Amino acid sequence: MKKETNNNCTNVSVQTHVHEFEGSIMIGNPPDSPQLAHNHRFTGITGPEIPEGISHVHVFKVDTDFFFNHFHQVEGVTGPAMLIRDQDGRPIGHVHGASGTSSCVFFHDHDFRFATLIQNPIGPIPLQKANE
Questions:
Q1: Which residues of 93-127 are buried (b: 16+ CB within 10 A; e: fewer)?
Q2: 5 pLDDT band (50/70/90 cuts)?
Q3: What angle do CA 110, 115, 120 make, to 5 degrees?
Q4: pTM of the predicted model as reported, rounded to 2 decimal places
Q5: pLDDT digits (tens, 9 = 90+) for 43-70
Q6: Which of these, 110, 43, 50, lies nearest to 77 by C-alpha position?
C-alpha cells in the first residue's frame, strides 16, 4: 500500500481489502485455580492484504474482553485466502483461517482459532481465482 504524507495527514493512494473477524478463545485458568476456568471473546478488523506466494495474508491484533480484571491480546498473521462458493458453485469471496496462543496474563494464556468473515459482504460478487 503506497502512502503519501502532507501536513501531518496520511493519504492512502491504493486501498486493499480487509476482513472482519470474531471468536472466543479456549477455556483456561491460572495454575492450581480450576475454579477460575474461563474464556474470553474478541472481535476486530484485519490489516490490509499482504501478498504471499500466489495468495495473500492479513495481520491481526486485538484485545479480548475482560474477565476477573484481566484481558489478553490475540495477534498474528492469517493463513492464505480460501475461496468460498455459493450453493450454485459460484465464487462469492474468500476467507482466511488463523490460530495461535494469546498473551500470557495472570499466569495463564489461551489458545484460539477462527476464520475471518468474507471480504466486503455487501459489495458486488467478486470475480476471482481460487488463489486470490
A1: bbbbebebebeeebebbbebebbbbebeeeeeeee
A2: very low
A3: 135
A4: 0.82
A5: 999 999 999 999 999 999 999 999 989 9
A6: 50
